[in-house]
């Protein structure tokens, strides 16, 4: 006997992501406008710190754009060719977001090395004013995406980018102030290096989370050995095999398993008990479980994977 359970959780995930489409669209427009502003002023003032902040805002724009496109695609109905839907588009967008961040951070760190040896003159006041405007834009987007970051890895990637960019804008403001008041041009590459170093570890964390989902590792916080033992301890269950637990996309954990039972087992009762266990103890609402007598389990032992 096999049964898939918990389709409502998939619908809930789509509904939750749908609530943030408008916020992502507004965030995209705001970030794009200030990206152009920072890039133009950065080139005109020769500010690497301002250009680095514009680079991070570029990843914000691309990240939010990918998040918006991925969520829109994920809301498309499941079809015969896409039996799991397009939920993984959100995870792919998060991974692409991380790759972009790595590239920008590496470029800024590389450019900063030459500027330590021969720092160019930087116009501190325009740098400060532009960074202040960018900081205001980041704070607005930060507020828009904050709640969604708790529900979606995809939105979290965009949210963390904006958080880093917000701190980067603060750093550019400080660097601009030091340059304007004291003519200390080394402040510009120092701020750029600081922003780059801040970005790298959180980028690695985001990439690791996305890769963990893409390679179908067990969700963090789920002990598969303990889960197997709990299923085996259910009444009438003698053995559990072909147990798989993975994440489809943020907030959508999935499991499948074969439960071997004794000769007089109530298969319907075993199925209900296993579903309740997975839902209440492990928060896995979508589980495909096959309840089978011992003679049927012999065929599974012959499989090589």
TrEMBL record:
It is a multi-pass membrane protein. Residues 25-215 form the Cation efflux protein transmembrane domain. GO terms for molecular function: zinc ion transmembrane transporter activity. Keywords: Ion transport, Membrane, Transmembrane, Transmembrane helix, Transport. It is found in: Membrane. The keyword Transmembrane applies. GO terms for cellular component: plasma membrane. The chain crosses the membrane at residues 24-51, 57-74, 86-110, 122-145, 157-178, 184-204. Its main location: membrane. Residues 219-293 form the Cation efflux protein cytoplasmic domain. Belongs to the cation diffusion facilitator (CDF) transporter (TC 2.A.4) family. SLC30A subfamily. This is Cation transporter. It comes from Saccharopolyspora hirsuta.
């Amino acid at each position: 006997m096999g049964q898939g359970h918990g389709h409502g959780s998939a619908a809930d995930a789509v509904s939750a992501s749908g609530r943030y489409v408008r916020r992502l669209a507004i965030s995209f427009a705001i970030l794009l406008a200030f990206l152009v502003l920072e890039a133009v002023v950065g080139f005109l003032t020769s500010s690497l710190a301002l250009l680095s902040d514009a680079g991070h805002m570029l990843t914000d724009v691309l990240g939010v754009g990918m998040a918006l496109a991925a969520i829109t695609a994920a809301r498309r109905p499941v079809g015969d060719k896409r039996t799991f839907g397009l939920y993984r588009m959100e995870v792919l967008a998060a991974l692409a977001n991380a790759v972009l961040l790595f590239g920008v951070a590496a470029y800024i760190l590389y450019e900063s090395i030459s500027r330590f040896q021969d720092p160019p003159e930087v116009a501190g006041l325009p740098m400060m004013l532009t960074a202040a405007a960018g900081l205001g834009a980041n704070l607005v987007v930060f507020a828009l995406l904050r709640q969604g970051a708790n529900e979606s890895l995809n939105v979290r990637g965009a949210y963390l980018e904006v958080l880093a960019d917000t701190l980067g804008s603060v750093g550019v403001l400080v660097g601009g102030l030091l340059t304007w008041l004291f003519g200390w041009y080394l402040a510009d590459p120092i701020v750029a290096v600081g922003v780059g170093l801040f970005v790298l570890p959180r980028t690695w964390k985001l990439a690791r989370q996305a890769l963990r989902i893409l390679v179908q590792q067990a969700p963090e916080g789920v002990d598969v050995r303990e889960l197997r033992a709990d299923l085996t301890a259910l009444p009438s269950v003698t053995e559990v095999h072909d147990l798989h637990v993975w994440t489809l996309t943020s907030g959508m954990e999935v499991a499948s398993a074969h439960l071997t039972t004794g000769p007089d087992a109530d298969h319907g009762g075993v199925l209900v008990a296993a579903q309740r266990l997975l839902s209440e103890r492990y928060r896995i609402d979508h589980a495909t479980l096959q309840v089978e007598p011992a003679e049927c389990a012999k065929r599974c032992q012959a499989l090589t994977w």
